[in-house]
């Protein structure tokens, strides 16, 4: 096994983590709270530091 093939899972995990951080940063830069629903799939589209439950406007989903 070469050193490149041993590091592939680490590179993929690192890339996935960086993509998740980039997506959250983009949502926040867009003016959204952007907390993700625990089940995945939705992010809060209310303003940052809002009070109460989180809400995804486009699907009408409310979550904690």
Total DSSP E strands: 2
Secondary-structure element string: HEE
The stretches of 5 or more residues where confidence is low (pLDDT under 50) are none
Task: Give the terminus-to-terminus CA distance.
Answer: 46 Å
What fraction strand?
A: 5-15%
**Approximate shape:** elongated
Oligomer: single chain
Which strands sit side by side, in order, in the main sheet? 1-2
CA-atom Rg in angstroms: 16 Å
Task: Characterize the biggest β-sheet.
Answer: 2 strands, antiparallel
Count of DSSP H/I helices: 1
- Structure classification: mainly alpha
pLDDT averaged residue by residue: 87
Helix content: 40-55%
Number of domains: 1
Report on this model:
With 64 residues, the protein is mainly α. The protein has one domain (3-63). The protein contains one helix and two strands; from the N terminus they run αββ. The chain has one helix spanning 3-29; strands at residues 54-56, 61-63. The chain is elongated, with a radius of gyration of 16 Å.
Summarize the helices and strands and which ones pair or pack.
Blueprint: H1 3-29, E1 54-56, E2 61-63
Antiparallel strand pairs: 1-2
Sum this structure up briefly:
It is built from 1 helix and 2 strands. With 64 residues, the chain is mainly α.
């Amino acid at each position: 096994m070469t050193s490149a093939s041993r590091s592939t899972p680490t590179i993929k995990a690192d890339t996935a983590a960086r993509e998740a951080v980039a997506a959250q940063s983009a949502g926040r830069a867009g003016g959204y709270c952007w907390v993700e629903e625990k089940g995945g799939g939705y992010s809060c589209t209310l303003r940052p530091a809002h009070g109460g439950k989180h809400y995804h406007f486009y699907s009408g989903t409310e979550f904690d």
